[in-house]
Amino acid sequence: MKVLIIEDEPDMAALLAATLEPAGYQLRVERSGDEIENILAEYDPQVAIVDVMLFGSQADGYEVVRRIRAAEGHESTLIVVLTALAGEEYEKRAASAGADIYMGKPFSPLDLLGKLSKAEIITD
Question: Structural domain tally of the chain?
């Protein structure tokens, strides 16, 4: 399964890679979602993991989620929002943008793997 990670923090991107690659996921990591339409056309992921606060990016994570959801052929892409912003208001905002799963940082790598595994079973 192809996973696109949009995360501006190198340490967090490395943690995600260390969690997902051994489980057999193919990864592409981007520091910004500014070119998300081109990335989707080129890579065509089944899953996108998006950080909300993308420093140095023109688009925040919510906008990236909206653009993924609106992209042709990506209406059913599983979108995970992974963010340090905690609270019901942020979770609702992520859901209204089109996210399927909301996870706060710090997060459990095993919990992430469990959520992705359940999603694979549902979508297969």
Answer: 1
The predicted-structure confidence for 87-106, as pLDDT tens digits, reads as follows: 899 999 999 999 999 999 88
- Cα separation, 25 vs 28, in Å, equals 10
The answer to whether residue 121 is domain-embedded is no
Specify the length of the chain in residues: 124
Q: Would 124 be classed as within a structural domain?
A: no
Return the CA Rg of the chain.
Answer: 13
| This prediction's pTM | 0.93
Q: What is the side-by-side order of every strand in the sheet holding 47-51?
A: 26-30, 2-6, 47-51, 78-83, 101-104
For residue 66, what are the domain limits?
A: 2-115
CATH number at residue 65: 3.40.50.2300
